[in-house]
Design brief:
By secondary structure, the chain is α/β, with parallel strands linked by helices. It has helices at residues 83-96, 101-117, 131-144, 168-181, 202-215, 227-236, 245-248, 267-276, 284-289, 297-302, 321-338, 348-355, 357-361, 393-402, and strands at 3-12, 20-30, 33-38, 51-60, 62-68, 120-126, 147-151, 153-154, 188-190, 193-194, 219-223, 257-261, 279-282, 306-309, 377-380, 409-414, 417-421. A 7-stranded mixed β-sheet has the order 3-2-1-4-15-16-17, with helices on one face. Helix 8 (267-276) links the parallel strand 12 (257-261) and strand 13 (279-282). The longest helix is centred in the last third of the chain and has 18 residues, at 321-338. The protein is globular and about 65 Å long.
C-alpha cells in the first residue's frame, strides 16, 4: 500500500459557501484514495513519510466541464464578434487544421501541460470532428495526468463547406471507429458530442441517442446560449416549443448530460433540466466575450439545478480556472445590477465550490476532500505576496482566487498520482 500525506493549510469545499479550513492539517490518501483530513496525524500513520508544505494552501484541483481543445491556439482572437459570426470567421477554420495529426500532437501536448500547470485535473472536453486528432488528444491528456471525458464532435450540417464538414454517414462511421479505440485509455473516457442542434441532422441525433442508451455513454452539448441561435433552432425544429426538447426527443437528455451556457433558459427549460438531472455548465467568460449574456446562476441554484463551471476556451479567454472562478463572481454581480429581481451574487466560497466539488460530482465524487474520493489536490504558495495584516486561512483562500504570486503552484495530484512539481 502506498500512503500519501500532505501537510499544510487544507481547504475543503465540503458544502457550497462553507469551506472547511484546517490549518496545519494533514490530508491523507492510501493507494490514491483519500482517507481523511486530520488536525493531527493519526497514530496509524506514525513513521509514514509526510510532505510538509508549511503554511501553503492545499486545495482541491479544478474540474473544467466545458472547453474546446482545438480552439486552444486561437485564444484571445475574434473577441469583437458575436457567437455565430465568431464560429464561421475564426472557429471552423481553426478546427479544420486538426486534420493534420502532427499539428494536433503539438497543440494538444501543450494544452494538456498547461491544464495541469493551472491545477485542472478533470475535464469534459470537445475535440474536433477528426477521429485521429481526438485519439491524439486523449493520449496527450492521459500522458499529462488529466482525467475525464473527451468527445469527437459530430456535425453533419450547417458547418463550413470545403473547410470543416462531414456527411451523416461519415460522422456515424468515424464515431464508431473512435469508440472502438477508446478502450485503451485508463483515465480519459469517451463522451458523445453533438456540437449543437443546428449542426446535426435528425438522423445523426437519433443515432447518437441510440448509441448513448445502448453503450451507457454521457453526452455534452450547448443550450440556449444566444438569442440568434435559439431562433435558428426554432426554425429547424418547429415541432419543439423549446431548445431543450430538440435533445430530449432523441434521447440525449438525462442525468449524464452536460449542457453548456443556458444563458436564456427560462423557468420551464430550467425545470426540465432539474427533472432530468442535467448538469448546467456555466461559462461566464465566453458568455460576455461573444455578447451572449449572463446566466441566471443564483436562480438555478435556488431552484436546485446542478451547476458547474467551464472555461469554454476559446470563447472564454482564460484557461486558468482561478480566473474563471473570479469571472463567475463578477458575472453574478453584473446579473445583480441588471436583473430587476436583484439576485444575490456568488460569494468566493460558492464560486469555488462550482469550480471544484460541483464539477467533481459529475465524476461520482462527494464534495470536498471526502474519504473515498480519488486524490485530486494542488499546493499553492502565497508567502511572497504583501499583506496589510496577518491573514486568516479563509482570507488567504479567498485572495488566491483573485491574486497569486509568480510560481505559486508547487505540486499537483491527479487521481492519486503526483503529476506536477515545481522546479
Amino acid at each position: 500500500m502506498t500512503t500519501t500525506i500532505l501537510k499544510g493549510t487544507i481547504v475543503s469545499a465540503a458544502a457550497a459557501g462553507a469551506p472547511e479550513i484546517t490549518e496545519g492539517g494533514y490530508l491523507v490518501a492510501e493507494d490514491g484514495v483519500i482517507t481523511g483530513v486530520f488536525p493531527t496525524l493519526p497514530e496509524r500513520y506514525t513513521g509514514a513519510p509526510v510532505e510538509d508544505f508549511g503554511s501553503c494552501l492545499i486545495l482541491q484541483t479544478f474540474a473544467d466541464l466545458h472547453l474546446h481543445a482545438p480552439q486552444y491556439p486561437m485564444l484571445g482572437t475574434g473577441m469583437d464578434l458575436t457567437l455565430l459570426d465568431w464560429l464561421n470567421t475564426y472557429t471552423f477554420p481553426a478546427e479544420a487544421r486538426f486534420a493534420d495529426p502532427d499539428y494536433a500532437r503539438d497543440v494538444y501536448r501543450k494544452l494538456a501541460a498547461e491544464l495541469i500547470s493551472h491545477g485542472t485535473t478533470r475535464v469534459a472536453m470537445f475535440s474536433s470532428l477528426h477521429t485521429d486528432a481526438t485519439l491524439i488528444l486523449m493520449e496527450e491528456l492521459e500522458r499529462a495526468g488529466v482525467t475525464g471525458y473527451v468527445g469527437k464532435v459530430n456535425m453533419d450540417r450547417n458547418a463550413a463547406p470545403g473547410v470543416l464538414e462531414e456527411t451523416t454517414e461519415e460522422s456515424i462511421r468515424e464515431t464508431e471507429r473512435w469508440l472502438a479505440e477508446c478502450g485503451r485509455f485508463s483515465h480519459v473516457r469517451p463522451m458523445l458530442t453533438p456540437r449543437f442542434t443546428p449542426s446535426c441532422t435528425d438522423e445523426l441525433m437519433a443515432w447518437l441517442g441510440k448509441t448513448a442508451r445502448e453503450r451507457g455513454l454521457p453526452i455534452q452539448s450547448h443550450l440556449s446560449e444566444n438569442d440568434r441561435e435559439i431562433e435558428w433552432v426554432r426554425q429547424l425544429h418547429p415541432d419543439c416549443t423549446q431548445y431543450w426538447e430538440t435533445y430530449a426527443k432523441f434521447g440525449l437528455w438525462n442525468d449524464r448530460t452536460l449542457m453548456a451556457h443556458c444563458v436564456w433558459s427560462d423557468e420551464r427549460e430550467r425545470a426540465a433540466m432539474k427533472e432530468a438531472g442535467v448538469t448546467v455548465v456555466h461559462c461566464p467568460d465566453s458568455n460576455v466575450n461573444v455578447c451572449s449574456g449572463t446566466a441566471p446562476v443564483r436562480t438555478m441554484l435556488q431552484e436546485g439545478l446542478k451547476v458547474a463551471l467551464g472555461s469554454d476556451i476559446a470563447g472564454g479567454d482564460h484557461l486558468d480556472m482561478f480566473d474563471v472562478t473570479a469571472s463567475a463572481i463578477r458575472a453574478s454581480k453584473v446579473r445583480q445590477m441588471t436583473d430587476s429581481a436583484r439576485p444575490a451574487f456568488l460569494t468566493v466560497p460558492e464560486a469555488w465550490y462550482l469550480a471544484t466539488s460541483a464539477g467533481a460530482a459529475f465524476f461520482g465524487e462527494a464534495p470536498g476532500f471526502a474519504p473515498g474520493n480519488p486524490l485530486h489536490a494542488m499546493v499553492l504558495s502565497d508567502d511572497a505576496l504583501p499583506q496589510s495584516h496577518a491573514l486568516t486561512g479563509r482570507e488567504r483562500f479567498e485572495r488566491c482566487v483573485y491574486r497569486r504570486q509568480p510560481g505559486a503552484l508547487r505540486a499537483v495530484w491527479s487521481a492519486g498520482r503526483k503529476v506536477y512539481e515545481a522546479e
